[in-house]
Design a protein that fits this description.
Number of helices: 8
Structural class: mainly alpha
Number of strands: 0
Strand content: under 5%
Distance between the termini: 53 Å
Radius of gyration: 24 Å
Largest sheet: none
Order of helices and strands: HHHHHHHH
């Protein structure tokens, strides 16, 4: 497939592009469907990826990557871009409780949940726990945490995401 991409790059060879399209389009669609895109969105992304391959073939360097790796990287990035553009789901509004004063059972349940959360936080990697405490207990934006720690923003976001996944796993058996 690399030779077809080189032909597209060097000579704008339409037949070579057709071979690339016929080979990669169904594979890209299958990959995108496995990653959670619905059928229509997956087809749109495949079309966009293959159009990008045609327009940016001049940027392909066979010494840096195989054609398949280059094309799959474009598809992966398009899928990530699409995910980032999706609006975040809004949490449903919970009705206000009739009484403002919690009863003894509620107080006990909250204390137990707080204890379970503290225990789960203690089992996290220290850098994950620190990032979670800064983000959720101190209510600091991720960018501010990165500035304070001197770490890249992506590192902070990864630590928070991984910490939340671990907490979710640790706390999944607690009844609501």
């Amino acid at each position: 497939m690399t030779r077809h991409l080189i032909a597209v790059r060097d000579r704008r060879d339409r037949a070579a592009f057709c071979c690339l399209f016929d080979h990669f389009a169904p594979r890209l669609k299958a990959m995108l469907l496995r990653r959670g895109l619905r059928d229509g969105s997956a087809e749109d992304v495949v079309q966009d990826v293959m159009l990008t391959v045609w327009h940016k073939a001049a940027q392909f360097d066979p010494h840096r990557a195989e054609a398949s790796g280059w094309i799959y990287a474009i598809a992966r990035n398009r899928r990530i871009d699409l995910e980032r553009r999706r609006p975040l789901s809004q949490p449903e509004e919970l009705p206000e409780p009739e009484t403002a004063e919690p009863d003894a059972a509620q107080i006990l349940a909250l204390q137990q949940e707080a204890r379970h959360l503290a225990e789960a936080l203690a089992r996290l990697a220290p850098e994950q726990a620190e990032a979670l405490r800064a983000a959720y207990f101190s209510d600091l934006p991720h960018r501010r945490i990165a500035e304070m720690s001197g770490l890249p923003l992506g590192t902070i976001k990864s630590r928070i995401r991984l910490g939340l996944e671990r907490l979710r796993h640790e706390l999944k058996n607690i009844a609501p």
